[in-house]
Design a protein that fits this description.
It is found in: Membrane. The chain is mostly helical and about 350 residues long. It has helices spanning about 1-25, 25-50, 55-110, 115-125, 125-145, 145-170, 175-215, 220-230, 235-250, 255-280, 285-320, 325-335, 335-345. It is built from 13 helices and no strands.
């Protein structure tokens, strides 16, 4: 009996490897599909609002897509100019930062610790950090080079959304199945829409704060903060690095310290207080799972996979939590806070 179980587990693991290999080889198709799916989920409340006003489906979709394209074009124009100017001046910023390397080297030498400026430069490589930050935004922009396909897919998804659950009900014939699927979709939609709004709010705060402080390319760092806010804890740290370094070489140490405090306060207030209160603690992921998700989805789908890693993992967690046979996987993915709450409730 044990041999049969072992053979079964090997078959399952081999199947998973084959599926993952297929996903990785088909990433050119899968990445635009996932982007379309997330865009459709985020835009669905606006589409449903227009429909609730008795506006025909085609007109509702046209209005939603027009608003989205105008918003995207405005962002692309502003970000494109910032990325171009920043890339042209990145060597100048790196040279200015080298002066701080010398100060650090002299400071450590006063304590009898000899550290060369080259060692510090290798440890704090501003050029690489900046290139990584801009490559994240550029890679997302590159995904929209097939913008026509993505927009077309979003349109079809929005039009299909109202009939999908009804099709499942008709095919399955069970009312419970439909209700179950509807709950899963509702949770996924609520998470994605709320997360997008919170991330947009976070990016706007970062942008306005850096703008009033006088940091160069404040809008660029606001967009980066918006995108990386989808990655809890780790994302805010990555988003802060280029903004802090730019402020350091441009405005000095005190201003850079102020930017560090700004990012820390925003991360604590929004990430630890606002999000759990709005979205519920049950949707949290453990820090280890967040890190492993970044590695896994980044390996599977590249930089775009890293940005979508947490939404994809949250979607998987919602699906696992909805099924009694797979709830244990959802518990392993979670923070463990619900376990403590359940213990207190049972006392």
């Amino acid at each position: 009996m044990k041999e049969h179980k072992i053979g079964y587990y090997f078959i399952v693991m081999a199947s998973v490897v084959i599926v993952l290999a297929g996903i990785k080889s088909a990433s050119v198709i899968i990445i635009p599909f996932l982007l379309s799916l997330f865009i459709a989920i985020i835009l669905s409340p606006l589409y449903n609002y227009f429909k609730s006003k008795s506006i025909p489906d085609i007109v509702s979709v046209t209005l939603v897509i027009t608003v989205f394209i105008l918003f995207l074009a405005l962002i692309a124009k502003l970000v494109g100019n910032s990325v171009h100017d920043f890339s042209a001046n990145i060597d100048t910023y790196a040279q200015k930062l080298a002066q701080y390397y010398q100060l650090i080297s002299h400071y450590t030498a006063s304590f009898g610790i000899e550290i060369s400026t080259e060692d510090i430069a290798n440890l704090i490589n501003m050029k690489q950090a900046m290139k990584f930050a801009t490559s994240i935004i550029q890679s997302m922009g590159a995904m929209f080079t097939n913008g026509f396909i993505i927009i077309l897919t979003v349109i079809f998804m929005l039009l299909e959304s109202q009939y999908f659950v009804k099709k499942v009900e008709l095919a399955d014939g069970h009312q419970e199945t439909m209700a179950h699927i509807e709950r899963i979709f509702s949770k996924i939609k609520n998470y994605m829409v709320l997360k997008a709004l919170i991330s947009l709010f976070t990016g706007a705060i970062i942008w306005m704060s850096l703008y009033f402080l006088g940091t160069d390319y404040a809008f660029l760092w606001g967009v980066l903060a918006f995108m990386l806010n989808f990655i809890p804890n780790i994302g805010s740290i990555i988003a802060a690095i280029p903004a802090v370094l730019i402020t350091l070489v441009q405005l000095g140490g005190m201003s850079a310290l102020a930017v560090m405090v700004l990012y820390s306060v925003i991360n604590i207030v929004i990430g630890s207080i606002v999000e759990p209160k709005i979205m519920g603690k049950g949707l949290g992921l453990s820090t280890l799972i967040i890190f492993l998700s970044l590695m896994f989805w980044g390996w599977l789908l590249g930089i775009v996979g890293m940005l979508l890693s947490i939404p994809l993992t949250i979607m998987a967690k919602i699906i696992f939590d909805a099924n009694q046979n797979t709830q244990w996987i959802g518990v392993l993915l979670g923070t463990g806070e619900n376990i403590e709450l359940n213990k207190e409730a049972n006392k």
